[in-house]
Design brief:
- There is one protein chain.
- By secondary structure, this protein is α/β, with parallel strands linked by helices.
- The chain contains 14 helices and 14 strands.
- α1 packs across α3, α6 packs across α14 and α10 packs across α11.
- It catalyses: acetate + ATP = acetyl phosphate + ADP.
- Pfam families: Acetate_kinase.
Length: 396
Amino acid sequence: MKILVINCGSSSLKYQLIDMSNEESLAQGLVERIGIEGSKLTQKVEGRDKFVLTVPMKDHKDAIAHVIDTLLDKVQGVIASADEIGAVGHRVVHGGEKYASSVVIDEEVMKDLNDFAVLAPLHNPPNIIGINACKELMPSTKMVAVFDTAFHQTMPEKAFLYGLPYELYKENHIRKFGFHGTSHKYVAYRAAEMLGKDVKDLKLVTCHLGNGASVAAVNGGISVDTSMGFTPLEGLLMGTRSGDIDPAIIPYLMDVKGYSYEEVNNILNKKSGVLGLSGVSSDFRDIEDAAEAGNPRAKLALDVFHYRVKKYIGYFVAAMNGIDALIFTAGLGENGVETRAEIATDLEFFGINLDKEKNNVRGKERIISTDDSKVKIMVVPTNEELMIARDTLALI
């Protein structure tokens, strides 16, 4: 069976068609600038030149129609009929407390997704638009929602509750939800396979490090804690997000600086993180280049980021009373040789020992700890699309 994986943003759409008989990616692509001048679709197929289609796309329905047409194209396509698409798996950011696993989409699920939009106003609405567009274009094809929050719904109350009046949790669902769950789940289970062990027997700390970043504690194959919270703003310092701060800073900025709620929200989400500290960029590659060239603020931003990740690793090792493997994934985690080295430094007392030579790897699966390291350090490239496709296949 072939499964189409869709990940909709507000003006973009990522897709991948996967043959689940051998889990081979047949085609993957990106549609950019949906509803904006300069819309284009870029598709990659193994063994072929990259295909780029520049054509106006007024909405997501238009975009998905072009995706299907491209997949069916006699020259650029990889299937002969849309009937070959057995199901569509949709990445949905927020499933609230109700969904601890993926689910076949029906009317009740669609109502819930709309209700949860208040918890993820920037993410769930585009996800919903993508689902509706697919349903309209492929009315007889089953749709599955795979939630970023689902994997973390196994967290115990002591991990997900905030020190706020309990009524705010019961009445307004204010609690830690966690995100990047699909990625954390994939790399945890893949690491177990690489180690030749049952994931139920392992205590893992998974580090999803990119422009958005989070750390998770995975004990026995389930998430018991994670760094992101009620929103993706909590936790690590990120590309443009502040991560953990004293909540009193917010009213202080409003009182002393005269900032509005919208201005503070914009600062915390879009002007902070390594961008705010470095004054250089939100891209870690640019910051590393600047630090190497002697920019002290760029170096400071990297130091703060590495320190925050290290703190969360220690926090989660304590929470699980041990660790068997430390896993790095996502853009920075998979490719950041220096980042991994800096984070792993001074963790030797946990039995975490990095092999500098093995660590010289980018974007490939590898164990990068020393042979005598008590704890394995691993690079495991994430594959959220495959995880979504697996969940979709299992449900249908």
